[in-house]
Amino acid sequence: MTDTAETTPRQRPRVEGDREEQILEATVDVVADLGYDRLTMDAVATAAKASKATLYRRWSTKADLVVDAISRAKGCPVPEAVDTGSLRGDLIALSCDEGGFTDKLPMSVMAGLLTALHRDPDLQRAFQELFLAPRIAVTNRIYERAVERGEIAAGVDVALLSTTLPAVIIHHAFILGVEPTEDLILRVIDNVILPAARGSQAS
Fold it and tell me: Name one GO molecular function term (predicted).
């Protein structure tokens, strides 16, 4: 008879009390300060005032630790679902509130991961599933409601439109070095997103 205890992968033990949350917060800070490539378990252990053995008992690799941290830590919250009654209002609330593009810590974490994402398939997959997916779900719901309200013209490529704002902001932030301010976000919404949603071009 097969011993199920041997065939079922064991769940790694959680760190007791508030220590796990403290370690995750410290990891986010180290990623933001040093970037993924320079992050080490030693650096996180020092920042969290924990032993490296404690980290390895819970997370087998730094990729496991970093992805867990950015998906769960308070410093990188998933933006809350918003419903202001208009596409413009929803996009402003999503982009400019906590966890949005004007929130420095999530953007710093993103910058710290960029160099590794394209060459680390495990990190990329986990980042997409745990960090991006819940944020994309919130954005998709905003555009779905806009379609239901008639704010988006028939024939508009909604899937492409929904990625345009983050694409422009990320390009400005990480390629051009332009800070993602509320003014920049409003310019993109008013001059690109809304005209495209109406099926027209900005004049």
Answer: transcription cis-regulatory region binding
